[in-house]
Structure formats: C-alpha cells, structure tokens
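[job 4471] stage=fold_predict status=RUNNING
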Amino acid sequence: MTKKRGQVTMFIIIGGVIVLTLVLILSLIGTRFKHQNEVEDTIYLNAESEKIKMTLDKCLKKVSGKALLNLGYFGGRDTIFFPYFEGEMFNANYGHYLGADTTPSTEEMEEYLAEMIEEHLPSCATGAGIKNYSVLNGNGLNKNIAYLTNVQIGKLETTAKIGEQTVLFQVNWPIKIIQGTSEREVAFFEINHKIKLKELSLFVQNLTLQIQEHPFFIDPLALLHEGYFIDAALFNKDTYLFLITDNQSKIESQPIRFLFAAKINAVEEQK
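[job 4471] inference complete, writing structure tokens
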C-alpha cells in the first residue's frame, strides 16, 4: 500500500513538472512572439514616419512656392478684393485707390501666406496618401496575427515669417502612426525660400506714395531698381497698372511677379 502511494506521489510530481515546463515553454514562446511583433512594429513605424516626413516636406515646398507666386499676382493678397481693377484679360487688386494706400502690410501678407498653406497643404497630403485611417493588416513576422494600423491627424497650424532675404514657413501638424502597441509622431515641418519679398513690398509702398503725392507724374527714378523689370500702363486716364518682375527671387526658376493697380481721382485732380 505504501509502495502504491509512493508511486502516485511520484506521478503527481512528474505531472506537475511537466505542466510547469509546458507553461514555461508557452510563456517563452509568447514572449518571443511579442518581442518579434515589437521589433516589426518599430521597423514599420520608423519607415512610415520617415515616408510621411519626406512626403510632407515635398508638399510644403510645392504649396508654399505656389502661395508666394499667387501672393505676387494678387498684389500681396491671396485673392481679388473689392474694389479691384477689372480688365479684359485679367483683374488686379489696387495698391492705391483714390488717394489711399491700400497695399497690404508685412503682417497681412504673412497671414495670407499662412492661410494659403492651411487651405492647400491637406489636399496635397491626401493626394499623396496621408489621411486618417484605421485598418487591419497581417504583415508582421507572425503572419497569423493581424495588427491594427491607425493614423491620427491633428490640427494644422502654420506661421509665415517674411525676413530681409527669405520667407520662412513653419508648420505644426501632428500626425501619429499607431502599430500594435507602438506609436510614432511627426509634427514639425518648415521650409525657407530665398525670396526678397520684404524689399519688393517696400518698393511697391514707395511707388504708391509717389502716386499719392504726384498722381499725374511718376518720377522715372522711382521705377528704377537693380534686378527689377517693371511694366507700366495707363488705363482710362485714371488707372495705372504695374507688373514688377523680381529676377533675383525665383520659385523653381520662375521669378516672383507683383501685379497691382493704382486708381487716381482724375476729375478731382484736374480741378
């Protein structure tokens, strides 16, 4: 009887050892799979965040370049504002209107540029495949396990700074990628264009001041500036139209052009 009890006890001990061994093996396997998944998540997130950074850098360069060109064509603004010069081929904002200087300030131009970035950057990013989404994929080392890839896009905030020699765009746009239990975030993007927009703006302001003081006589010296090519025309005896081309400031080999009109009170001046 004692011998049988000893045998039962031995079987219990052996069974316990086997169970503990299986638990340990399963735990090690689970840890190994978890480690593999974490390694894959890290590799995936690093690659995806770098792709997003490169894509948005390209988008910001493209969109900010177009914003600067548009700002010039709209006379320092982002669209046509009433009242404006209405021509047969094109329209133009006034930089001078019936005795008043209507050229935008540096701060206003910075706001217009920032607004254009915030309006058009998301569509460029979406076209490149960057958008909010949540999908299941099974691209991990463990092919039998599906991981949740989640992209969360935060609020877009932009500042534009017009310096002496450059125009700086800074974008804060949090984009978070979540893979499994890991995540990465890219948020800050910037680009600096070598554009002398402040100098061009001051030149335009001085020109409108000349028009304000002498509506019927523009000093030829006021139209001279190294690197600028200036086209000027008079319409209906009361409206000047100016197109200033800055060959020293270029976007993708395309010079910045500043178009604006100046309307004088011809009847009042002739009295």
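[job 4471] summary: The radius of gyration is 33 Å.
[job 4471] exit 0
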